[in-house]
Design brief:
299 residues; alpha/beta; D-Maltodextrin-Binding Protein, domain 2; 9-stranded mixed beta sheet; two-stranded antiparallel sheet; 11 strands; 42% helix; globular
Length: 299
């Protein structure tokens, strides 16, 4: 199997666009098209349904994508092993995290690692933390900073780095946004709520509303906790997010925590990786350098 063809196939599977895949791979769209045709001929099956307007993986293409990612990961691990034996640990480490996590934790985590392994390039992607574990499971990232779900997916290793409560916030200096008690049903069914589309905070909030038999008035569902602070600061409603996000937000002085806080349980933040990827010398070096659950607990 041609490794170069597998890389081009994965690039197209990730973007579903020949132009963007070609730009990301530094080749021409015709090169990707030719490589894909050769792959499909070798396999005797169609990997993509494509026309002038869209590109989509077929069922066989989705199955082959899992195989291709596995092969490429094993190839990278083998190459890294050769370099490690030569005492020249070089390569690339991809990390995914939220914007808040990038400046709250990454500096401390990466400072020593970069000194110890200057030959390793860091590829950082930021986005919605709710997608962190999914991106690691899909093979899109080597490492992610993620909230620990109530049940970790099989094959994921998780190392705790911080714990922060989930808090409810409202616009600054306006008591009409504050409930008389943490379980005041009338308040929670009328006040506009700004919440995450998905993720641990959303799951905990939904469970709490269900337990209290509350039908919330959801004003907006957003991606990323930083957007919640922004919308609350503008007076659109009450939001819920990890306290550590608020502590690091430039808009922290424009919102305030509610007087009465429902208890949604702790929000555990940590580093996650596929267990099988720990065989990679680069990922193993990063993992071993992490402190053993050096908790920063926010109250």
């Amino acid at each position: 199997m041609d490794i170069a063809k597998l890389k081009l196939f994965c690039a197209l599977a990730n973007t579903l666009h020949f132009g963007r895949a070609a730009a990301a791979s530094h080749v021409s769209p015709s090169t990707i098209s030719r490589s894909l045709k050769q792959l499909e001929d070798d396999l005797g099956t169609i990997l993509f349904e494509r026309n002038n307007r869209s590109v989509a993986l077929t069922h066989e293409g989705q199955s082959f994508l899992l195989f291709a990612r596995e092969v490429l990961q094993q190839w990278d691990t083998y190459q890294e092993s050769l370099l490690a034996q030569a005492d020249q640990l070089r390569g690339q480490l991809s990390i995914y995290c939220s914007v808040t996590a990038s400046y709250s934790f990454l500096f401390d985590i990466l400072t020593e690692f970069r000194i110890s392994h200057p030959g390793i390039a860091i590829k950082l992607h930021t986005g919605d933390p709710a997608q962190s574990i999914e991106r690691v499971l899909a093979g899109n990232e080597d490492i992610a900073i993620a909230a620990k779900p109530d049940k970790l997916p099989a094959g994921i290793s998780f190392k705790l780095i911080a714990r922060s409560p989930l808090i409810f916030i409202a616009p600054r200096n306006d008591k009409t946004w504050h409930p008389p008690t943490s379980t005041a049903r009338d308040f929670w069914q009328t006040i506009p709520m700004i919440i995450s589309e998905e993720g641990l905070a959303r799951e905990r909030l939904d469970a709490w509303f269900t337990a209290q038999q509350i039908r919330p008035n959801i004003y907006a569902e957003v991606k990323g906790n930083e957007a919640i602070v922004s919308m609350v600061s503008l007076g659109f409603g009450v939001g819920v997010l990890p306290k550590i996000v608020l502590d690091n937000s430039p808009l922290a002085d424009r919102v305030q925590a509610l007087d009465h806080q429902p208890d949604l349980g702790p929000y555990d933040l940590g580093i996650c990786v596929m267990e099988k990827r720990l065989r990679s010398p680069i990922i193993s070096a990063f993992w071993q350098q992490l402190p053993a659950e050096d908790l920063a607990i926010e109250e």
